[in-house]
Amino acid sequence: MLRYTLMRLGIFVGCSLAIWGLVYAEILPRGLGDSNLLWVLLLALVVSAPISFVALRKERDRASVQVAERVERTKASLEANRTQEDLADDAARAQS
Predict the structure, then answer these.
(1) CA-CA distance, 65 to 26, in Å (whole number)?
(2) What is the pLDDT of residues 26-38, one digit of tens each?
(3) pTM of structure
(4) Which of 10, 47, 84, 94 has the fewest other C-beta atoms within 10 Å?
(5) Distance between CA 1 and CA 33 in Å, rounded?
């Protein structure tokens, strides 16, 4: 999961630098007033999202499998705890 996040962040940073270069070279507009940084970041987000979607498909699938396995382990642990609590409660009621 961390690997996917870092790869996605790397793509975003690369797009940000590329777009900043294009804005600095005046190929792309600078934005309105003092909004230049916000313009570059928003445009980088819009450009990096589809690139990440295509380029990181396999890594995203691996990360989703890890997350699903972690969720299943957590569910099993919660169910085991719930069963132990029910058994302890039943035993306490039987002793009363």
Answers:
(1) 44
(2) 888 887 666 788 8
(3) 0.69
(4) 94
(5) 39
